[in-house]
């Protein structure tokens, strides 16, 4: 019998108890919320709120690149890219799950077809054995006449 990943995951989760189970639920819930494009949009808006101050700090009294570089690196990229990367990873995971499911189904179908073929071969083998026995009986009857 084939083992399906969903069955293994269900068994694995069934063994979790206490804090470990709570931590998994919290982690999954937070990841599900953050790993969306809507969250990326919200984070982009939040990051843009501090952009005017970063621009002011960079251009007031001569050009100083550090405030704008800091804003881009520490605020915008970290906030927005976090959600986008998690969202992309979820999409890749869904595609991998779909491929695994397709492989599982194809393998199961191949097993079923192979079982049918083997059953047919066994039936033909039995028929051949029966026909061989009939031929042997006919040959013995012919030999007995002669």
Structural summary, described in words:
The protein has 146 residues and is mostly helical. The chain has a domain at 35-112. Helix content is 88%, strand content 0%. It is built from five helices and no strands. It has helices spanning 5-14, 18-34, 37-49, 51-59, 66-145. Helix 4 (51-59) packs across helix 5.
Give a quick precis of the structure.
With 146 residues, this protein is mostly helical. It is built from five helices and no strands.
Give a topology summary.
Elements: H1 5-14, H2 18-34, H3 37-49, H4 51-59, H5 66-145
Helix pairs in contact: 3-5, 4-5
Low-confidence stretches: none
- H/E series, N to C? HHHHH
Query: Roughly how much helix do the residues carry, as a percent range?
Result: over 70%
Strand content: under 5%
What's the rounded overall pLDDT mean? 89
Radius of gyration: 34 Å
Strands, total number: 0
Quote the distance from N terminus to C terminus: 57 Å
Number of helices: 5
Major pleated sheet? none
Computed structural class: mainly alpha
Cα shape? rod-shaped
Primary descriptors:
88% helix; mainly alpha; 0% strand; 146 residues
